[in-house]
Amino acid sequence: HAGAAVKSNLAHVVTIERHIMDQERMHPEATGALSNLLYDVGLAAKIINSHVRMAGLADILGSTNVVNVQGEVVQKLDEFAEATMQHALLHTGRVCVLASEEDEQPILIPVGYPSGKYTILYDPRDGSSNIDVNVSIGTIFSIHSRVTPGDGPGSLVDCLQPGRTQVAAGYVLYGSSTMMVYTTGHGVHGFTFDPTIGEFLLSHPDITTPAVGKYYSVNESYFPRWDPKVQALIKRYKGLDDNGGEAKNCRYIGSLVADFHRNLIAGGVFCYPADKKAPTGKLRLLYECAPLAFICEQAGGYASDGTQAILDIVPTELHQRSPLYIGSRDDVRMAERMLSGS
Ligand code: AHG
Ligand code: MN
Ligand code: MN
Fold this sequence. Notes:
Helix content is 30%, strand content 22%. The chain is of the alpha+beta class.
């Protein structure tokens, strides 16, 4: 009888490794390289998580006085997360080139190491301004198939692909619990880290997001800088205009991954509009907007730059920025209607 109890307990324990294998079986032509790449990301997430959880203890708080390509002061955990991602991804032969928010140029595979058929772009530490105040932060990643021929090192060309061609995308949220959420184009699946066994366990299978959200997320302090159409849109979300729209509740954490995840689960719309100071918005297309847009659409939501789907934007630069309206489908469609003046 005890054996049966153990068997029944274990039956529902699905690790992310097991889930990735199950996803791989949906692709008969799969070689396992994408599965192995996703394992590598999961390992990096566990290592970064172990440091995030100790950030207050180890001497990795505080800034390094180094300014990155974005012109922002690099926090020490940024450096650690960046180093961990490179260490987990550069030498395994799954990718032909990497790109990171923290590096101006694409990161090339070291001489003597094999190149693979994928490329991965990532934001190693999202929500940097929240690190020292113990607020949730995250990691975001986007995976494409290489487009350059052969099996040698890749290049910038392999990085500048529209979001619609992603083969996988995901994020890690270092929150009240640590979660990893990913899609390979067959739905969105969430895993919660169990520190007692050091595994990500399936906790949120087939995540779908409501068509209309109860939250809106935006940095209201920028209101004076916004275009009047953006101001009107936020008023609409507040239920303040005469169209009688249901008033939404406001939640803004300042870490994109945390704001996105709450809205994905509970329903909501996250906005980072263009403004006078940031005419193309602040968030980066390739490793913030596009991976979250892929996940969002897979969950039944939608993501736009205000005029077109994020996934349809063809990138021209590695760190190009985009305005972002992402989350519950009807709320984002509303944004497109109001911003295009239709
Ligand atoms: P990162 O730490 O990778 O630079 O990202 C920070 C981003 C995003 O996480 C968040 O939504 C946004 O910055 C907050 O910007 P504001 O402080 O301008 O609201
Ligand atoms: Mn970020
Ligand atoms: Mn970052």
